[in-house]
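User: Structure tokens for both sequences below?

Assistant:
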Amino acid sequence: MLQTKLIRLLKTFSVEEVKQLRLFIQSSLFNDGRRPQKSQALLEHLSEYHPHFEDEGLKKETLFLEIFPEETYSESKLDKVATELVKVIRKFIAVFCSDALADYQYWLSQAQFFRLRRLNTEFQYAIDRIEKLQQKMPFRGEDYFYRQFNLEHERMIDLVDSNDRKKDINATSTIKNLDIFYIITKMVHCSYLLIQGNHKQQDNSRNHAFALIDKVLETAKDNYLDIPVVAAYYYSYALLLHRWEENEDNYYQLKAVLQNYGEEFSHSSLIVFHNCLRNYIVGRYNKGDNTVLPELLDLIKNHAAQATIYQEGGDIPASTLQSAITVALKLGDYKWAIDFLTQHRYRIVGADDPEAIYQFNLANCLFHKGDFIEAERLLANYNFREMFYKLAARRLEIKLYYEARSPLLDARLDAFKILVHEMKSILTVDKIAPNNHFIDLLRQILAPKTLRNRERIQKLLDKLENQKAVAEREWLKKKLEEMMKRC
């Protein structure tokens, strides 16, 4: 098969786009290479195999005969034609594949052309069309304000060039729209840096960027918080910047903006804002605030309904799915957890083994429901290869053996201790320590001297509370509290 940029490009095209491309290539204005007919013939042949391109007819030799019948095979000659076709496709992308901006760019080019030629009637007609497009824009984000700037900029230049003193030159409005565009754009990019944690790195360019953003935030706060999209970015940025501090006001301000003006934001913007809300609540939970879990689950359910937890195409990141299931189980919403997991079984991305994520979480859901036998069967029948899920599955298995009062529990703990030790060369200390602490505490819970000994049980509860990193902390705490009640 011809493994080139050509095939990769065409695979991304829709059926309708391929049809338009076949018409596009017929124009000598765009298909102006040395072999225009050959590149067109190559496209026609490849189009028959769109979109999967899986067939014997795509072998280089076969393609060559289609384009150069009765000639001796030459790979270099075929590659030259393919290269020309790639160039035509790139022109097609530039001209036709910018749907969101196509009409706007069309009329802006018209306005600029007619202004330079001093065709005033035609210029005004193009300006009026741009205004109508602006009024119809469903989302008023940075794109809207940049287009508005271009519109008013054209008007201003026209008035300056014509020296028309009867009409006011609205330079203030032009500057304002450009100012808003840059404020939003800067906050967007700095938000990306914060989400990725890059603000922790001591880099001169980043330090300079964040010094500038302080001024941008101040300008936004003092002048533009009445504009919903600016307010949303301002509060989301503040949430990210002060994630681990008391930040409730910014959180509820952002929620209020989204509730009141959510329909004005693009889906891509909502993804950013919703991610900020969830990150803030997760940050509070990680600091020990268990009261925020109901709020987090509500956010997850609401954002799932708005499809803002998904990637393009409806796939869900493995970390997002794991977080959703974990929170639901902590709150006892087992039915929702199982339904959500089942719905997304074949849509998990961002993991080496998506099926392992499904199998483990299903077993975990069943464990929380009390269906220990089925949970154990699932764990026994699946080979977990990823380190995180291998360890998590073994811990779950140990909890199952504990609940079932299995005589094999001690042997399983020994085997898990060996597994953790073997992984010291693979995992960092912060991944190893919580598992070792889990083993040690559970062994102390199982010790005969702990049974019905309130003082010892309380010491273990205090130890659990003070220990920084313990896997299955909440489950261990629950078991100790149950033991205390039985004393």
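Moving on to the next sequence.
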Amino acid sequence: MIDSKKLIENPKEYKRCLKLRGWDPSVVDEIVKYDLERRELISTVEKLRSEKNLKSKDFGKLKKEGKDTSELEKIIKQITDALTKSENSLNEIQTKCDNILLTTPNYLLPDVPEGKDSSFNKVVREWGKKPELAFKPKDHVDLGESLGIIDFKRAGKVTGARFVFMCGLGARLERSLINFMLDTHVKQHGYSEILPPYIVNEQSLIGTGQLPKFKEDLFKLENFPYYLIPTAEVPVTNFVSDEIIDYDKLPLKFAAYSACFRSEAGSYGKDTRGMIRQHQFNKVELVKITDAKSSIEEHEKLTRDAEKILQLLGLHYRVVTLSSGDTGFAAAKCYDIEVWLPSMNEYKEISSCSVFLDFQARRAKIRYRDPETGKPTLAHTINGSGLAIGRTVIAVMEQYQQADGSIIIPEVLRPYMGVDKITAALVI
């Protein structure tokens, strides 16, 4: 949630930010209007409370002296009724203002490229070279089905569209990637491993920004006030919600494997073939909780940590800075890491690494004690996929495919896989 005080002090700045995002800036005027009403009501409430206290003291004095209090009782009742009415109005105004703030996006950092959509994203760097295949590349669906390691048909029978069975060495490849990523982030990059719940409450989703804005993207449990997580970002960030963290423990760095569940509302018709966009997928998530001064630097480091996985796997990729119109609701800046897929002859996002400043921390009440003032201060949060497992499986399959339909296993994965190649298996 944005800082309403900052917005009210400089509404033009936030209006400009909203315009860059493609949002209606008139919401700023609403917030300013409600804040003015709120301030007036606060003044009225404080005045009435003061009057009530004074009259109550007079009432007590008269009562003690045995004098008639009936007229004073009427006055106190009138003040009490007016106070109750003003307090109710104040609560209504505060609720309206909070609801608007909960559904309006974050500020953007100054270096975010301006543009209305992804066509304005800026390529920051590339790593490696596109694999030179002397044959027409197959996509992961054809490769996986011919090798007997992917089964969409049976997943469709058991569940429905956009689900998959990973079989045999396909299942082992997915599991190997999870272990490899966690081992790398924990042993080499200094993250603490955490295995989170896959079910969270509404407040946790409000804390990270999925609710109330993106309710249609979530799977809610019937008859329970819980949701399946769309990403481990939700439980891991909220691991320290409503807490004050010791400054000397910052930055907190967590690496978490989880399954993720997304309804993909609004994405119908997009990437419907194969595992590019599924309702259930695995991911290793990186989350950082930092102080206000170091969040930009820590964002860069987290992005490099995610990139390192692709480098160790020998997969060609690029990093892009998302434009203002393509930056996510809660992010102040976002890098997308995009891996090359030969069958599509294009790059596909495999990780989004975002810095949120204090946007999530304000919603989730994540604070640290400032070493200079000793006062609780809102933390900054950062996260990114390190990486999305399914899309990494796709990239390995397609970039390492051979003319005979087999798939070479990247060297760093061979100790986990126990084989150096996936060849034709028995297809059930």
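User: Anything stand out in the second?

Assistant: The first strand starts at residue 122 and ends at 127.
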